[in-house]
Amino acid sequence: MFKIGDFSKICRVPVSALRYYADLGLLLPAHIDSFTGYRYYTLDQLPRLNRILALRDLGLSLEEIGRLLHEELSPDELRGMFRLQQARIQQQVEQEQARLARVAVLLQQIEKEGKMPQHEVILKPVDSLYAAAIRQIIPIPSGVGDLLGEAFTALMQRGIQPVGAPLAIFHDEEFKPADLDVEIVLPVAPTVHLEVALGEGRLLQTRHIPAVTTVASTIHMGSYDHLNETYSALGQWISANGYQLAGPSREIYLTAPGDPSGLVTELQWPVEKV
């Protein structure tokens, strides 16, 4: 028999890992000295340890490995476990391939411009929102701020405080310089129930804004007068990275109206792989 340190050298597995496997019941010492507490292992345990290491190399969790070691799994159960792991690995491969493609696009931009791009784009999911919302056709883009202010005032008059940054959802299916189909969204607590007529048939009411699986997101700094430049950069990134638009764009207003140079706006575009 070998002390744990010597066995560690033979199998080239750290002592800490051997202790952890023992604590989980995956590989118990062949003997524990009752006086010293020293743990001893035998060479006969190497095949079991190698199986643990091989299964770990395949990416299985220690819990899954424990099942394989301690339970008599049927062929169907074995196939199911390894097919699930195969699917996990395939997903990881696809994620890494997508990351590799994004790096390639970034390198192309650097080669072309000689510097990092001005706008960084990330992909992320967006949770659903419970909000007070109003949707209407706005003659000119500057009317977004007016409608937002009107909706915000209606909430304040009723003692309702938004619980998140306001946003606008642009429902038009193509670019329009005028007569924009815009929905103003003010996140509120789920206990708020509101239905307010703002005149001319317009209704501010609470509703659930659906979640979005994936958005391409970037940050616009400064005046809204230059939003088109940021939208253009976002659109170029989406196309260059093999995505396509999958829903209406959103603008999240992270700062209160004030000095245009200090405004911070997040632009989001739902996307899906081409």
Labels describing this entry:
274 residues; alpha+beta; three-stranded antiparallel sheet; 7 helices; elongated
Topology readout:
Blueprint: E1 2-3, H1 4-11, H2 15-23, E2 31-32, E3 39-41, H3 46-57, H4 62-70, H5 75-113, E4 122-126, E5 129-138, H6 143-157, E6 167-170, E7 180-187, E8 195-199, E9 202-209, E10 212-221, H7 227-240, E11 243-245, E12 249-253, E13 264-273
Terminus-to-terminus distance = 60 Å
Main sheet overview: 10 strands, antiparallel
- Principal-axes geometry comes out as elongated
Mean model confidence by pLDDT = 92
**Count of helices?**
7
Strand content: 25-35%
Question: How would you characterize this protein structure?
Answer:
With 274 residues, the chain is an alpha+beta fold. Helices cover 39% and strands 27% of the residues. The strands form 2 sheets. Strands 4, 5, 6, 7, 8, 9, 10, 11, 12 and 13 form a 10-stranded antiparallel beta sheet that branches. A 3-stranded antiparallel beta sheet has the order 1-3-2, covered by helices on one side. Strand 2 (31-32) and strand 3 (39-41) form a beta hairpin. The mean pLDDT is 92.
